[in-house]
Specification:
Layout (H helix, E strand, L loop, with lengths): L16 H21 L13 H13 L2 E2 H8 L3 H13 L3 E5 L7 E5 L1 H21 L5 H24 L12
Antiparallel strand pairs: 1-3, 2-3
Helix pairs in contact: 2-5, 3-4
Length: 174
């Protein structure tokens, strides 16, 4: 049965329109500022690793060695995108390509010791930035913000999955 705008109530009701307008605006500002600063951390490490590299290295660190297809699927991106993004990481020695133990024709990607050290250096710098940005927050506020941001990202990821494309920066479900 077809519905009319009057028949289908979404979250945008008269009472929360202003709040949702503020939310969408703040998300847009956050996205712009995050991209401008790349939230890369502080000190010499600041902006030293792009988002794609960070997310790929982080995923390999958390989930262990895997093939291109598995890595692409876990990140919600095309295999060709992973191949293109991994190439410079292999060239710089942050990721190693090895043969699959059961199928020598297949390639497995894994974080190299150099990649693990570099990732920890970037993580440490980013942790320092997060500490500085939230230094006047109570621990409960940090926890609550992290919980809500994770929830928001998961909802966005689920929506993108339904539409056939998932964001590459979605953290694994806990």
């Amino acid at each position: 049965m077809p519905t009319t705008p009057e028949m289908s109530m979404d979250m945008t009701t008269v009472g929360d329109t202003g709040l949702l307008d503020t939310l969408q605006h703040e998300v847009a500002v956050f996205a712009r500022r995050a991209e401008q600063t790349r939230l890369g951390g502080v000190g010499q490490v600041r902006n030293s690793m792009d988002r794609a590299a960070y997310l790929l290295l982080n995923r390999l660190d958390r989930e262990g060695p895997m093939g291109v297809k598995a890595l692409a699927a876990s990140m919600g991106i095309d295999s060709s995108t992973v191949t293109r993004q991994v190439a410079p990481l292999v060239d710089t020695g942050l990721v190693k390509r090895t043969s699959h133990p059961e199928d020598g024709r297949a390639v497995v990607l894994q974080l190299s010791p150099r990649g693990a050290a570099r990732l920890e250096e970037v993580r440490s710098s980013r942790r320092q930035l997060m500490a500085e940005l939230t230094q006047d927050w109570a621990p409960e506020e940090r926890e609550h913000f992290c919980m809500l941001l994770t929830r928001f990202n998961r909802a966005l990821s689920a929506r993108m999955s339904v539409q056939g494309t998932a964001p590459a920066d979605q953290p694994p479900a806990s």
